[in-house]
Design a protein that fits this description.
By secondary structure, this protein is an alpha+beta fold. The chain has four helices and eight strands; from the N terminus they run H-H-E-E-E-H-E-E-H-E-E-E. Strands 2, 3, 4, 5, 6 and 7 form a six-stranded antiparallel beta sheet that branches. A two-stranded antiparallel sheet has the order 1-8. The longest helix has 16 residues. The two termini are about 60 Å apart.
């Protein structure tokens, strides 16, 4: 018998002798070690850690393009903050928080300055009528 086979046999015998008599196949650790989940150390702040993991980017769920009299809505995602506020495809956004916007790039920059949970007053034109909607920004995953 080779030296490595002899060593392997010695280890197997030692394990068999030290394993508890109640061990059976499928035990997570049949040689008698216990593992405990002690949780996070006291010096870690759980809320701070979770806060660092949450997105700081806002989500609108809206596609738009520049138009002559405002920003034309081209798509609204189902279940999005824009959809929940009542925006629909074909609406024309005339103001965001009271400021007139006609350029889609400026509107995109405006949304990027906001954070999740911010409320924005959106004035729109739909079917020749003006409406004011309140859009609450969501968090981007």
């Amino acid at each position: 018998m080779s030296r490595s086979a002899t060593n392997l046999l010695a280890v197997a015998v030692a394990l068999a002798l030290t394993a508890p008599s109640t061990a059976f196949a499928g035990d997570p650790c049949p040689i008698g070690f216990d593992f405990y989940d002690v949780g996070a150390p006291d010096w870690l702040d759980r809320d701070e850690l979770l806060g660092a993991l949450t997105s700081k980017d806002s989500w609108v769920g809206l596609s738009f393009k520049s138009g002559e009299d405002g920003i034309r809505v081209t798509n609204v995602s189902d279940g999005s903050p824009a959809g929940n506020a009542g925006l629909k495809i074909g609406d024309t956004i005339t103001t965001l928080d009271g400021a007139a916007h006609k350029d889609h790039k400026a509107a995109g920059a405006f949304f990027r300055t906001k954070k999740p949970g911010d409320k924005i007053q959106v004035d729109i034109k739909r079917d020749g009528k003006t409406q004011t909607l309140t859009l609450t920004l969501g968090a981007q995953d």
